[in-house]
Structure formats: C-alpha cells, structure tokens
Amino acid sequence: MQTLKSEIKEFLTSRRARLTPGEVGLPLDGTARRVPGLRREEVAELAGISVEYYVILERGDLSTASEQVLAGIADALRFADAERLYLHNLARASRGVEAFPVAQPEPRVTGRIQSILDGFTLGAAWVRNEYMDILATNRAARVLYEPIYRALPDRPNTARHVFLAENARSFWIDADYYADAFAAKLRLESAAHPRDPRLKSLVAELTERSEAFRSRWATAEVSLLTNGIKRFHHPEVGRLDLHFETMELQSAPGLIMSFYLPDDAATARGLAALRQQS
C-alpha cells in the first residue's frame, strides 16, 4: 500500500506539474525547464514560504504546516474545494490526527431514515456510506440499481460495480467519467480515514482486481461528487437521465443520502414503469 509520505509527494508534485508560470501570473525567465509545470521555488514564492520549507513539505512531511501555510499552498496551486480538503486531511494524518475517529460506531439506517426514503415518491432515493456501499433505498432506487444488486449480491457498491462488474459498461452510460469520479472520491476519503480497515480493504481489492482503478488512483485526483446528472441504460426500460443531489446525515455521521429526479419526460416514464414492476 502507498505510504502517507509518498501520497503527499505524489499529490503536490502532480499539482505543481499541471500549472504553467503564465497561468499563475509569473513571467517566463527564458531558461529551459527540465520538468513540466512550476518549479518548487515558484510554488514557494506564490505560497509565501521559503524554498527549503516547501521542499520538506513536498517530500511528504506536512506535520508542521499551519492552516495559513496550507492555504497559501492551495492558493498557489489553484486548488479546487476537494483538493483543499484533501490537503488539510493529509496534513492532519501527517500530524497523527484523523479527520474522523477510526473507532466511531458503524452508522445505522434507522427506521426514521428509511421512512424519509420511502416518502420520496418523485424519484429515486438511497443511502450509502463513505465506502459507497448501498445501505438502503426507496422502491425506485431499488429497481434502478437492480443491475448492481444482481452483479454484486455480496456487497452492492457503486464503486465496486463500475470497476469490477461485467455489466457496468452496459449500465453506466458515462462509465469512464464515474470511474474517474469514484476513484477520486475514495482517494479523498483515504486521507480523512487513513487507518480505516474497511476503506483500506476496499482500495486494496480494487487495486488488485482492476487496472482501470490502479491507473486512476495513480493520478492523485480527488473529488467531492455532490451533484450532477447520472445517465443509465437500464435493461428493462432503456436510458434514464437523473439529476442527483447528495447530503450528509447529521443524525448518522458517515451516511450520505442521495435524491435522484428525472431530468426529462422519457426518464420520468421509465422510472414510473420500473416502480410498477417492483
């Protein structure tokens, strides 16, 4: 498994490599560049720290980095929200502090949570954990995700389905996009929960069994994946385009509820037909 130091180094160097001096407002000095992207001294200048200190950080030791230093690096490297969160979680892990306690009890889907799912009749609704396990659904989500349940009866999980299931590409219209997104989401979780045995086991399984996952994990991309459009090809009713929104459940930390609404009339009809079949 990848060490924390190598994860930090890989992340910062890859983000430095994707930027050019012109993109961050620095003039070109006319000298040849041995590597793509910004030089360490340029990142240090933009972040307002010494080159020597930035070298220590990029080599994988964020234990002494203050919130101000982390914010400076994030600004210098033009980080998106997910990347900022990932950097702060890597720093916490470097200091031996997890973003969330590893020993917290397993969150449960209570009867009240299930009643909220069942009461949502305009579309599909479901609850997952940080590992992307499908824990509870309303009727529409259960029939929508039937191909996932059929392919992975031992552990219905959207990330495992995209990377491991034979029917994934026939079900997920944008399979490559969600392969990118799910790997990036799991990488973000890995920094928040670096000692979580279930997360380590999932990443190890996907790494061992899927070249597509290994190649995406190596990019060091991170993602929040909170809303958007998901497009499916369901074997019973054909194409379904669904707008989704997600929310963390304050009453059950670690659980995420997602709501899917049809994005067009054809999808509304298809989802209604699925509900009638269940």
TrEMBL record:
InterPro entries: Cro/C1-type_HTH (IPR001387), Lambda_DNA-bd_dom_sf (IPR010982), MLTR_LBD (IPR041413). One of its GO terms (molecular function) is DNA binding. Residues 7-84 form the HTH cro/C1-type domain. Pfam families: HTH_31 (PF13560), MLTR_LBD (PF17765). This is XRE family transcriptional regulator.
